[in-house]
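Hey, quick one: can you model this chain's 3D structure?
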Amino acid sequence: MPPSVNVRYSLDRGGIHGEGQLEWRHLPDRYRLKLEGRLPVVGTILLQRSDGLFDACGLAPRRHSERRLGRSERALTIERQGDNSGTGAVVAEDRLRFSTRSQSLALRPGTQDRLSWLVEMAGLLSAWPAPGPTQGDRIGLDVAAVGGDVQHWIFVLQSRSEQGQLHLSRVPDEPFDTRADIWTDPQRGHWPVRVELREPRGDPLVLRLTGWQPVGP
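Sure thing. Here's the predicted structure for all 217 residues.
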């Protein structure tokens, strides 16, 4: 996993321009992650958080929340075996619980949320055996959303630049799935330097790295 860092991005959607700030904290036994998108005059339009631990698969999210402009906060909680459920009972199996639905889902190993997958991808690429992935190689991640669904995202390596930056694209399962492209920098532990997210309707959301500030222990 990459070391703690504060990252700034330019944020563009259609003709609207703003900025994104991402805070990643790699602590001895857990992590904290926050992404905030802001627009001039309007203020914060998106606030995402992910908190969790580490396990054999990498990041092990415990809670993920999302708040968008004009909407109340939505969240998902991941309960793992041995946890205290809050009622005095011990959790018997790993489950995903959502604030937007009453039914929980079984948790598959390695599942990420809609924010932690960015860091998990950086970790997977950094751990790839030398000389690294080649064009056409695929990476699969289960990604849970606060809306109550879990999808298996498959990324395919499209290209590698002369500087070693990798461009990966998500292969959508259905026509209305989110499309995602990321460009990662090996000099920064394969942290994304550019991200493009496209929903079925509307303009794509584009983040481009503009600032990088490592955070000491």
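One thing worth noting: The helical segments are 116-126.
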